[in-house]
Specification:
The strands form 3 sheets. This protein has a 5-stranded antiparallel β-sheet with strand order 11-10-9-12-13. Strands 2-1-3-4 form a 4-stranded parallel β-sheet. Helix content is 34%, strand content 27%. It has 9 helices and 13 strands.
Length: 285
């Protein structure tokens, strides 16, 4: 089997995602799968694009390129539509609302230009979400572009600082402050879970200073993560779960999941699991 792994050319080769695709190549070699690594900036995205591979692992968010590869008949993991929805916290919310338990959420109003919010709107948001509010830009990774507002003035200042960027607002889940659960999934199997904790920040992300430890998730947590992956149409993912007062809450789902920290603390290989899954699917088809 010969596969292509697409990564983002413009993050640089010192970026963690390049280390991740190198890990995939190493695991592919061990499994007898020949993987070529190419940045999205190395592939001319035209109507006549022709690439000779059995499959593509798309470790980027260049949706137009992923879609064009699909149009050439190439199996792309994850598929372009799933990546597109996962890359948008707004689209993810709309896809999963009323299907999975999650924090109360308000989608911010669209604007062409910078916004100035009326007090009545801010009061309504606080009445619905509470005094502590988590603000998330529509697109963002590693816990970046996520803010905590404490009260009305802080909320107003934070929202105005976003300019015309799209965003969502969510209730602050006190029970999960500085901690969450990352569940890694391939196909319909939970590969393992990592609890992340951060004593110095409400965000638990490893890249924000959090620490991870390998844990066994509860059945309710597994079921929630598996349901999210299935609804989103993903082949593999990392699902982030919050510890709610009345049970687990969906936080977000990652199509380009950074699994290197998980591999390190668990001794497992997420890359090998992904490649074994793809080989099984391709041989079946």
């Amino acid at each position: 089997m010969k596969g292509l792994v697409v990564y983002n050319s413009f993050l640089g080769k010192q970026n963690k995602f390049f280390s991740l695709v190198q890990d995939l190549k190493k695991e592919g070699h061990a499994l007898g799968i020949d993987l070529e690594l190419r940045g999205n900036g190395e592939i001319l995205n035209t109507s006549s694009i022709k690439l000779d591979y059995d499959f593509v692992i798309f470790w980027d968010k260049d949706i137009a390129l992923a879609r064009n590869l699909e149009l050439q008949g190439l199996p792309v993991y994850n598929c372009s539509e799933a990546i597109r929805i996962c890359d948008s916290k707004i689209e993810t919310f709309l896809k999963l609302k009323d299907k999975l338990p999650m924090p109360k959420t308000v989608v911010g109003p669209f604007s062409y230009f910078d916004r100035s919010f009326e007090d009545a709107y801010l009061d309504e948001v606080i009445d619905y979400l509470g005094e502590k509010i988590v603000i998330k830009e529509e697109k963002g990774s590693f816990g970046m572009q996520v803010y905590l507002a404490l009260g009305k003035e802080d909320l107003k200042d934070t929202l105005q600082g976003l300019g015309n960027k799209n965003f969502i607002m969510q209730e602050f889940v006190e029970e999960s402050s500085g901690r969450d659960l990352r569940i890694n999934i391939v196909g319909d199997r939970v590969i393992g879970a990592m609890e992340r904790t951060n004593k110095n920040d409400f965000r638990a992300n490893i890249s924000s200073g959090g620490k991870g430890c390998f844990v066994e998730p509860s059945q309710a947590e597994k079921d929630l993560a598996l349901a999210a992956q299935k609804i989103m149409g993903l082949s593999f993912s990392g699902v982030d779960i919050l510890y709610g007062k009345d049970g687990p809450l969906f936080c977000e789902i990652n199509s380009n999941v950074n699994y290197l920290s998980f591999n390190h603390i668990s001794g497992l290989s997420m890359g090998r699991e992904i490649l074994t899954y793809i080989r099984r699917i391709n041989e079946r088809d």
